[in-house]
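User: quick one, fold this
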Amino acid sequence: MTTPLLSDLAARARTAAHAHTDACSCGAVLTLADRVDATVVRHADTVAKAHAPDTDPTELTARLTTAARIPDVLLPPLTPTPVTLHGRLVTLWPYGTPVDPDTPDAAPWEAAATLLARLHRTPPSAPLPPMRGPAKAAHAIARLRAAAPHPATSPVLRAWATLPAWARDEHPLPDTGTLCHGDLHLGQLVRHPAATGPWLLIDVDDLGVGPAAWDLARPAAWYACGLLPPDEWTRFLAAYRAAGGPAVPPHGDPWPALDVPARALTVQTAARAVTKAVAADRPLDDVERSLVDACARMASVPAQLPRNTAK
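Assistant:
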């Protein structure tokens, strides 16, 4: 269904794509996402995004400024500040070719790790808010608690309770001053220029300062749950270390630094899985069950807390 927001967002994308000509023979506007937290459309080589309704304009502008400053790491926006459309902040971006989910063997783990390391080594040049990773995890738990009862809810909540307060968004993040993406997964990479350009990170909505290990947490969690093959995890970790990434020691066991963020991402992903299963009135699939099982194990094994992050 076409909403006023979608219609006007499409018009913005068309106007931006053809700023220097009235002619247009490049087809319809494509809806890439239409969720409560983001509506995204594409026309030709331009993408228009309506951000979540509660997005702070000052914080988003600071994130856009950061992306524009490091265009070899983050896809730079087409405009330096957002505009308001139907009460939503809207930004414009160049289109980049995403990772192909049908070719998992070609997943750019090395590129993702190298970009993360470069991001983490970039000093923030302007005041930035905390990265939003723990806030997103806490939101997933809140939605799980609001959902109908389910047998898997209890082990997920027990695992959540074992995490330190900062990882549950109940205490300020460790003061590292490190620039973080906040929501790293392979869907956050595109090639730009499209198809042939280098890989770049996209989506600045969660960008901020905080513990760099959070950006490694999703692949670490998948590896710990048996969802990411060991060789792919090894490739990712080795590339991050080779690029001088500060989230883990350059040698030896990385897990003391990764354990808490990986647990938090496991709980977050499991909470979302259970919530979706309840909403669809369906059983958990094998992957979702493995996440819940991991939460059940986590509840009985204390987390490895890095120094100065135990609160």
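User: anything notable?
Assistant: Residues 241 and 250 are 6 Å apart (CA to CA).
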